[in-house]
Amino acid sequence: MHVGSIQVRLMGVFAIGLICSLIACSGGGGGAASAAVPASSGPVNIGLAVTPKSSAITTGDSVPLTATVSGTSNTAVTWSVDGIPNGNATVGTISGTGGTVTYVAPNIEGSYILTATSLADSSIKATSTVVVNAPSTVVSVALSPGVTTLGTGASQSFIATVSNSAVTDVTWTIDGLTVGNATVGALIGNGSSVTYTAPTNAGDHLLVVTSVADPTKTASASITVAVTASITSVAVSPGTLSLNTGATNQFSATVAGTGSYSSGVTWTAQKGTITSTGLYTAPGTAGSDVVTAKSTQD
What mean pLDDT is predicted for residues 45-69? Predict the structure, then answer.
């Protein structure tokens, strides 16, 4: 009985609602029924434009691109080159994100289509055509000095100049080695300038600089390392000396040789201590000691 009374009441509500939908449910007479209809907002028109529409650059160069979205608060876009998202090494690459990016051309001549696609509506697209041409000039590399002769252990600076390229980076080798070694000499520095230090042995060596923009373009310098100086003797003064324990004495060294030799020496003491300038301090116990000066060149 309880369930039956609920069903009756529901049917009554349904009937009243049905009647009110057919006739006007108002306090007045038999006026016509009416219902509020929400106004339509109308279609959304999204606009998208890419500038520049077309451009021409050379292989490896770049061009900035801007995508402008209108008609929506979502102004984000995605980019592709010839249908490839953000491009690749073959068709060129897109650098950056958002509405303003940079297109970097490949090393292959051709015409490439850059497309911006609206994230608000993927059917909305705009394109820009970029024509990539080969450079009208050829990259060249020069190296100065081109020929030089150095004494063993001597140093020489070299400067590389890259022409007809916005990329002026270079790489260096000496006898095929990037930094050299004790046999061929050492390279110090990077960029357009390096310093070469000759080895201690005489010989001929080849310094090569290579363009990063075009690795087929190189320049070279011939280096002759010669023994232009020699040390004939080193003398220490005083030659003999008596000191109290813990006392000090200043020693000096005289280097003799031929050519343009170095007069530098290094100092050692067997028991006491000695500085790089020859200032000796005797040990704390009595006995004999030996102080030695050795030529830095030989």
Answer: 93
